[in-house]
Structures are given as C-alpha cells and as structure tokens.
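Run folding on both entries below.
>entry_1
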Amino acid sequence: MNFSRLYVCILLPAVFCLTIFAQSQVTASVFVDPAETYKQKINDAVESYDKVENNTFKFDNRYLSLPTHTPTQKDIDSYNKEKKNIAPGYVGWFVFPSLGHAVEGDWRRGAWFLAADILAYYIAVQPQPIRPNSYGLVNANALAGIGIFVVSRVWEFFDLVSYTNSYNDQLKIKYNIQ
C-alpha cells in the first residue's frame, strides 16, 4: 500500500477526529459564568488587602451577593421563540449534505461539508484499474472516496449538534435563563 492511500484512508480521518475533539474542549471552556468571575476577583482583592493591612479589614460575605435578574415571562417566551430545534436539522442532514446547516440558519458552514462530499464523490469515481490483493478485488479510489464521505458526514453531524447547542447556550446567556 503506498503512503498516499494510507494518508487518505487512515491518517486524514484521525486528524479530523482529533480536530473535533479539540474544538469541543475549547467550546466547553468558553462559557464562563461572569458572576463567578466577578466574585473571584472581589475575593482576591480582599485577600490581598487583608494581607497588607494585617487583617484589620473584615469583609462580610453579604457584599458578594450580586443582584440577580430573574427571567420574566417575556424573556422565557423570547428564548423559546428564538431557540433552534435540532430535529429539522437532523432530517435535513440525513436527506442531503449541508441541508441540516441550512435549516439551522448557517448555510456557509454547511457549504464546506458539501464541498467535501463532492470531492469524495469525485475521488471515488476516478477510473483506476482494479487490482487483486489479499482482500480480493479492490479499487483504492472508491475506498478513499467512501472514507472521505463517511468522515465528512459524521463530522457534519457533530458540527450541526455543536452549532445548535452553542447557539441555544448563547440565547440562555442573552436572556439570563439558567
């Protein structure tokens, strides 16, 4: 087996999977509660002040309570109206490549997956003599095209879920819904 086939069939899907994993780790760390950050900054400032003044200043924890905004019915209704439901995206994803992203409102993001699927089809239909090997008759181009297509479709599915969840999380922050 030459190196280019090994690269397309094994190494490229592995890189895609690692990229998805790294993206999910970064996305999870992006959403930080601003109130917790604010409380931590106050605690750090008080601790440093206490060290300088030899504990002459006593800080009462009641100052750490921040005014909270409880969502009104209008906020909840707005959130429910604007949030994205993943079910139409699943159906679109299953029917046609990148249609799920179009249904969810981000056609440009889905266009990259459509391009990958077209590339996979182009690679799969390239003529190549079928050679016998230990597994039988194998067309390496067809296998590479199918591999790229499967990786692209799986990646598109997880990207669709990630996009929808992050959009809904941003709406929760916007309307202060826990």
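>entry_2
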Amino acid sequence: MKKNTLALIILAGVLLRVICGYFVYGFIGFDEYYNGIDPAGIKLFLDHSFVYSDVARSPLLFYLDYGLFFIASKVFSIESPVNILRFAMIIMGLISSVTIYLSYRIAILLDAGEKTALFTAALISFYFAMPFLQTRLMVESISSLFIIISVYFFADRKFFMSALVLGIASMFRFHVGVIYIALLFVMIFSPSLRKGSGGFILGGSLALLIQLMIDYFHSGGVLSSVIEYTRFQSGVFLTHSRQPWYNFLLLFIGLSVPIASIVTLTSLFRAGVKYYWLGIIFIIFVVLHSLSPHKEDRFMFPVIPLFLIMTGLGMNGLKNIFIKRNILWLYSVSIYWFWVVNTVLLFLACTSPTMTNVSGALDYVRTNNFKTLASDSPIVPKFFTAYKGNIEVVQKDGWKKYLCSLNTSDGNYIHTIYDPLDVGIESSAKTCGVELNYIGNFKSGYMDRILAKLNPKYNYRRANGHLYLVSKPKRSS
C-alpha cells in the first residue's frame, strides 16, 4: 500500500511537470535566455558552426540546451521554436522528477519514518513552485537537481559521490561551491563524519579536475570561467540594484505559506537542528547570498528543494508536540491552509506562461510573413522567430520618429509592451500618414500579470504585448 502511495505521488509529480513544461514555456530572466536559449537557438536555426564563446560563463548550459533543441528538431522533427522549447522543458521536468523519489529515500536513510518520508516526497511533488522550478532551463534550477542527488549520497554515506555530484552542481552555478566548503568543514569537525572526509575531498578534487578540463577546452585557460565570472561581477558590482539584507528571509517566510508557517517554519527549524549538516549548509548558503547588496529570488532556487526536504523531515513527531500543548486544532488548521493555498498557487504556476506578451507576438509574426518587427520591449527574443526577419528596438518615446521613417508596409509589424495610447502609437501613425491594423494584445499568463500589478516598476514589461501590422506606409511627398 505504501509503495502504491509513493508511486502515485511520483506519477502525479511527473504529470504536473509535463503540464507545466507545456503551458509555462518561456524564460523569466535575461541570463536564462542570453546564456542558454539564445546561443543554442543560433546554432540550431541560424549558424550550425556557431561556437559558444562567453568565457565568463560555463558552457554547460549552452550544450545542454542545444542538445535538447537538437533532439527535438532532428529526432522528433519539431519545427516551431515554441514547441522545441516546450520539449526541452518537459524533458527537464521528467529528469528532475527523480528528486521526488530521492527525497523519500533521504527521509528513510535519516530514519525519519515512512509517513514522514511520504510527506516529504509529496512536498517535492506537489509544492506549487516545484513543477515550475524543475522545468526551467536555468543554471539555478539545474544545480538544484544535483544538490538533491548530492544530499542523497551524503545521507547514504557515499561521500565521494556526494562531493562529485555537488561539484557538477557548482559547474552550472558557481555559487553552489559554498555548500561543498560548508559540508567539508562539517565533516572535519564532526567525529561521526570525519572518516568520510577523505572520500569527500577526493570527489571534490575529481570535480575540480573536470572543471579544469572544461575550461581548458572551452577557452584554453585554467579555471578561466570562474575567474572571468568573478572579474565581471566585481566590475558591475556597484551598478546592480540593491535589496535589503533580509530580502531572502522574507522570501522563505513567503514560501512557508504564512499562517501555515506556524507549522512549516517550526518543522524547518527542528530538521535543521536534528540533521545539523542540512541546517548548516542551508543557513550558510542563504547568509552568504544575503551579504551581497544585489539579491534576486532566483539566487535561492538551488536550495528551495532542500528547504522543502527539511520542512518535510521536521514533521516527524511534530503533531505530538501540538497534542501535548492542547493546540492540535492549530496544527490541523495550518496543514489544511497550507494545502488549500498551495493548490491554488500550483494551478496558477502550472498554467501561467511567462513573457508570452513578447514571445507570443514573435511566434505570430514568424508564421505571418514578417520581414521587420519594431518593439519597445527591453528584451526581444529572436529565438521565437527562428532567427528570421529583422528586429528593431524602439524606445517608448521614439515611436513617432520611427513611424515617420517607414517607407514600406511589406511584412512590417509594430509591437509595444505599453498602453498604445500612453506611447502615442496610433496618434503618431496618423500624424506620419501610416495606417496600422491592430492584430491584438498578446497577454502574458496570470502570474506575470499579477507581478506587473504588484511591482509595475520592474515587472510591467511582463504583462501586455500589443501588435500592429503596417497596412499602408507613409505617403510619398
């Protein structure tokens, strides 16, 4: 019966990731696109001889994306960029589903009990952020997969493999290396783990050797990607936006589902104390990232599955504490509230595509004989046009100048992420003698639109995408 329960949890998790990969295609950040999707798309659609040359980044994301795109295009004969991206994201989701089973095994190896193990697996499977997180083509998401595999090997006392896999996680996201350093210190100062430190060092050394080989063949240098990345970040350190030191603290409070936090954060704390090595690596990762002035939520993606596993582990025996204090009702309300809120958020997260206000418009013009598209979006991903046609970027206050310079209507499209009335597209077109045919508003998913409402300064670009076809050029003088 328990095996059947685990199988159902895994199967449901796999299905959720397939649904999320299909409906929530796209990207959420510049790095995800420009360091992976875009160069892989260039090699697939535009220039088969293209060589990824950014020495400040690991080439692994590029090779992973290109490999998935190549399989989709050449093996399964998928032509649409949208469907190629969907294929890649679904495959990532299927691969990452292994963490559902591994979270169960981690709980069993740590003697947390069968019931706690199933609850932990259910968290990884059904938690609202996980299908989204595990279908992203982001270094942060990919590294989170390897972190959980590493934690599994560590819990199973296979320290060599734990370090080696953690090293692979670090190759995708260099910052993950702090977890290796933290675990090594824990092992050295822990009598019960000290004997395994030799194997852990050996595994880490092998991972370092692999990184040296990758850098040598990629750029001809020694640890060149790490060095150049550090140099690049130090150069733009003062130009990045700055967030308060408690930014990530608020993030995890939010992820704990407030009200239910009475149970979930208590559970997290209990697991962090009992399984101290998990607590230490989680705290060190969060604290060190909090010391940096620039903070983005995606920086915490690598440890969100770890956060959930610890929350699940801490549930072992927690109910009895509430019973002894005659507040079982509080425990029950918290659990019910958690799953109700999570279910609503899970539906939104698995059905709300990202940045389709831009990618949807590009996909439309790709199939409708476009030659030029002008847009005021800060990012115009050519991937969705299969690198056909010409893209022109126009500032939001530059539409009149652009429209008055048009001399052809042949396959010419206008795209704005702003209200057309606010940027004066239609009035400018009238002044310039240009006739426009309104195609429609390519809205992004619910989540993007909610984010745009909550924080319009940074997320307005995610909400709307008004598209026009130039039906008549400027009159000749």
